[in-house]
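If you are new to this repository, start here. Below is one unmodified record pulled from the training split, so you can see the exact layout before writing a loader.
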Amino acid sequence: MNHHILRFGKLPLVMAALFSLGVQSAPASNVPLVSGSYQVLQKTGLGSQTQIRIRIHLVNHGPSELSIQRLTLWDFSHPEKGGSIACAVALPAHDSAETNQEFTIPQSEFQLWQRGLRPRFILQIGAPGNTSGKTIPKSTTVVRLERISGQEAK
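And here is the target side for that same chain:
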């Protein structure tokens, strides 16, 4: 009888150990491929629109270089109106890169940025250094940018 008690007593210990391993490894898998921050460098009012020039700092958390070919501002209540800009930004593995870009957005949306709304970008990523002529599928990733503290354009 004592043998059966020990056998069933070990089961909860094994289950608890497996659960704790799963909980410890979960945060590592939740790390985004790319994260980033932004700083408004210049702002120009255009009536109900605002043209902004922003510095975007991107960090690649992945094991291989990424080639960003297009940035799309995809935010607010009307994402289809977000600007899309072709670019060529090489983002080395486990490293970072910066780019300056210009977008025209509604004045009301820029005011939301100033109140703390974090802009969201969709990055179109292609294979870096594709000179072989092979067609390599493109992928996309979404990045919510944090505002860089410090003085921004008024």
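Two things worth knowing about this chain: The two ends are 78 Å apart (CA to CA). The longest helix spans residues 2-29.
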